[in-house]
Amino acid sequence: MNGILRAGLVGLGHMGRHHVRVLRSLPGVEFVAAVDAREDVRQRGAATGLEVVESVSELVRRGIDLCVVSSPTGTHEEIALELAEAGVATLIEKPVSHSSKSAQKILEAFQRSGVVGCVGHIERYNPALQQMRLRLDHGELGELYQVFTRRQGPFPARIADSGVIMDLASHDIDLTAWVTRSSYRSIAARTAHRSGREHEDLVSTVAELENGVVVTHLVNWLSPLKERVTTVTGERGCFTADTVTADLTFFKNGSEPVQWDRVASFRGVTEGDMIRYAIPKPEPLSTELSNFVAAVRGEAAEVVSLEEGLVTVRVAELMRESARAGRTVEVVL
Question: Which of 67, 122, 135, 300 could form a disulfide with 140 if both were Cys (CB 3.0 to 4.6 A apart)?
Answer without folding.
Answer: 135
